[in-house]
Amino acid sequence: MQRRTLILSMAVLALGTRPAMAAPEATAPEPASVTMTGVGLPVFVDGRVRNHIFVELKLHLKAGFAVEQARAKDTVMRDALIREGHRRSFGMADNWNRVDERALAAAVMQITATHLGRGNVVRVEIVRQTPRMRVRTPSAVPAS
After folding, report:
1. Of all residues in the chain, what percent carry a pLDDT higher than 70?
2. For residues 108 and 81, is the Cβ–Cβ distance under 8 A?
3. d(CA 53, CA 129)
4. Which of 48, 55, 76, 105 has a beta carbon 3.0–4.6 Å from 124's, enabling a disulfide?
5. Strand 121-131 and strand 48-61: pairing?
6. What is the Cα–Cα distance from 56 to 104, expressed in whole angstroms?
7. Residue 88, SS3?
8. What is the strand order of the sheet 121-131 is part of?
């Protein structure tokens, strides 16, 4: 019985009719990205820390840029981002439980341009924002 199966399978291979083993279609490779998790940024208003928000960022890299290079600079970029977050608040003025995504993304793009080279990070995606605690923002925030 095994001999018969072997002969039939060899005949099928010789004819070239192998629908189950057809070559997969070429798909475009997904652009590389690096994830930065657990970056804690303070939210301060009027010189007082009101909350801390932990963000998870996804850095979308330019095609052909090595992911290993970006991962090697992860701690340096994380440190620079935390220092920048202590210089200026990325918190929203009307919601102390969220960060200003545009300001944060712009700061990360500037930091990555310094450490990875300009243009090697195409886009910054803020995947998750987790406040340390839920804080009620006063309805009348004093204008600074």
Report:
1. 74
2. yes
3. 6
4. 105
5. antiparallel
6. 12
7. coil
8. 33-45, 48-61, 121-131
Cα atoms in the 13 Å half-sphere on the side-chain side of 118: 0
Q: Which long-range contacts (CB under 8 A, 24 or more apart) does 78-83 make?
A: 78/36, 78/39, 80/111, 80/114, 80/115, 81/36, 81/39, 81/41, 81/107, 81/108, 81/111, 82/39, 82/40, 82/41
Distance between start and end Cα atoms, the chain: 87
Rounded to whole angstroms, the Cα distance separating 124 from 77 reads: 13
Extract the tokens encoding 121.
């990070």
Which pLDDT tens digit goes with each residue over 35-91?
998 899 999 888 888 899 999 999 999 998 989 999 999 999 999 999 999 999 998
For the record, the structure tokens of 49 come out as 């820390």
Q: Is the pLDDT of residue 123 over 80?
A: yes
